Amino acid sequence: MINLSSRLVAVAVGLFSVAACAKPTAPPSDHRAAATACNPARPAGKIDANRSGDCKKDRDCKAGKNGRCASHSNGRMAPTNQCSYDACGTDADCGKGLCVCEEADGNYCLPGNCRVDGDCGKGGFCSPTWPLCSLHGPYQPSGYYCHTPKDECHNDDDCPKPAKTGYGPMGTRCGYAPEVGRWTCVSQECPVG
């Protein structure tokens, strides 16, 4: 079964560092201008009849709302048929967080300090922040946060391109850093293999 905690956890190995970057020159390319309600009727799951798992058909998935059986791969593991469920249909279902519509794996809630651009003040932007490296997938945002005038970046292109290292490729992206309360360029050595 795919659950919310497995979505929000991105296992990363390596050392984080903050890279020097120029001030942003363009608005963020990915931001949430308006909230949208999710489709209440998810399509049927895509099942691989040759895979094992905890289900064989959608009707086997009864532990939550809109259960679907589909073949999933968690990182380096072989795909198996697993149940997924909708944790939300609108932002109101997520407390202070927001609802991300995902037909394949089920709608899910994310934390953050905004739901839409308007929550960030006049001319503000509410954007998703993404993990640098994920060994166990699925690769999804880890939260939505307001951009501020103190941000060092708005987009990944605002950050310097890292060099390859002996352990694995160095990942660099513009991400929200809760410890400093702003968007900054962050680098991390991502494992390979």
Can you characterise this structure?
The protein is mostly beta strands and 193 residues long. It has one domain. It has one helix and nine strands, in the order αβββββββββ. A three-stranded antiparallel β-sheet has the order 1-9-8, with no helix packed on it. Strands 2-3 form a two-stranded antiparallel ribbon. The protein has a two-stranded antiparallel ribbon with strand order 4-5. A hairpin with a 7-residue loop joins strand 2 and strand 3. The longest helix is centred in the N-terminal third of the chain and has 5 residues. It starts with a helix and ends with a strand.
Sheet with most strands: 3 strands, antiparallel
Strand content: 15-25%
Tally of strands: 9
Number of helices: 1
Percent helix, as a range, is: under 10%
Low-confidence stretches: 1-21
N-C termini distance: 25 Å
Q: How large, in whole angstroms, is the Cα Rg?
A: 18 Å
- Structurally, the number of domains stands at 1
What is the element string, with H for helices and E for strands?
Answer: HEEEEEEEEE
Rounded average pLDDT = 79
The geometry reads as: flat
Strand order of the largest sheet: 1-9-8
Q: Quaternary status of these chains?
A: single chain
Overall structural class, as computed from helix and strand content, comes to: mainly beta
How would you briefly describe this protein structure?
This protein is mostly beta strands and 193 residues long. The chain is 3% helix and 25% strand.
